[in-house]
């Protein structure tokens, strides 16, 4: 049996100049809708009360998954963008490009009764997801897990963060300079 969300993600994935590109999913309403349904389905029976996403693709996917689950959305901002109110912040360990990011979340967006799901397009090192998990827990909420389109992380990271991906990176077509 095939998974429609997985199939949509794979059929809309492409390599551009050696870089992975999932933006075609966002341009196709049927693909976007199917992928969002698939991401939501991975946690629909887990008692999720809020979805968070890291800007920029995480904002788009996270808000859509929040609507699909019938819960609210919590924004996680990077660096210097305007974000009023008291914040919880974390400086991430280096990501796959060896960059460190400062992530910020409004403290008032978290409550003691929340079970928060992080949604993003891709996870590799888990550095940003681990930072968000720490922020969620500092805010008094419970971590629900992480739903992603492409999972490229290690098994230990996958278990620690409860990562559920539609596609494993090893399933993606191999990049070729001929394309």
Question: What can you tell me about this protein's structure?
Answer:
With 179 residues, this protein is α/β, with parallel strands linked by helices. Helix content is 33%, strand content 30%. The protein has 6 helices and 9 strands; from the N terminus they run H-E-E-H-H-E-H-E-E-E-E-H-E-H-E. Strands 5-6-4-3-7-8-9 form a 7-stranded mixed sheet, sandwiched between helices. Strands 1-2 form a two-stranded antiparallel ribbon. Strand 7, helix 5 and strand 8 form a beta-alpha-beta unit. The longest helix is centred in the first third of the chain and has 13 residues. The chain is globular. The mean pLDDT is 93.
Highlighted features:
single chain; 179 residues; alpha/beta; seven-stranded mixed beta sheet; two-stranded antiparallel ribbon; 6 helices; 9 strands; 33% helix; globular
Q: Count up the helices.
A: 6
Strand element count: 9
Order of adjacent strands in the largest pleated sheet: 5-6-4-3-7-8-9
Relative strand content = 25-35%
For the biggest sheet, the summary is: 7 strands, mixed
- Name the average pLDDT: 93
The helix/strand order is HEEHHEHEEEEHEHE
Overall spatial form: globular
The helicity comes to: 25-40%
**Structural Rg:** 16 Å
Low-confidence runs: none
SS-derived structural category: alpha/beta
Distance between the termini: 30 Å
């Amino acid at each position: 049996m095939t998974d429609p969300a997985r199939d949509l993600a794979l059929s809309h994935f492409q390599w551009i100049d050696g870089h992975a590109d999932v933006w075609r999913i966002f341009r196709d309403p049927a693909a976007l809708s199917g992928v969002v349904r698939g991401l939501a389905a991975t946690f629909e029976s887990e008692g999720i009360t809020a979805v968070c996403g890291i800007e920029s693709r995480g904002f788009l996917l996270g808000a859509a998954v929040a609507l699909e689950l019938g819960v609210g959305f919590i924004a996680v901002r990077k660096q210097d963008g305007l974000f009023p109110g008291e914040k919880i912040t974390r400086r991430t360990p280096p990501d796959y490009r060896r960059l460190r990011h400062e992530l910020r979340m409004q403290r008032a967006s978290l409550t003691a009764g929340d079970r928060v799901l992080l949604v993003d397009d891709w996870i590799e090192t888990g550095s940003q997801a681990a930072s968000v998990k720490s922020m969620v827990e500092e805010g008094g909420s419970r971590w629900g897990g992480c739903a992603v389109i492409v999972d490229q992380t290690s098994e230990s990271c996958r278990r620690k963060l409860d990562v559920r991906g539609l596609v494993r990176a090893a399933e993606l077509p191999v990049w070729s300079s001929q394309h």
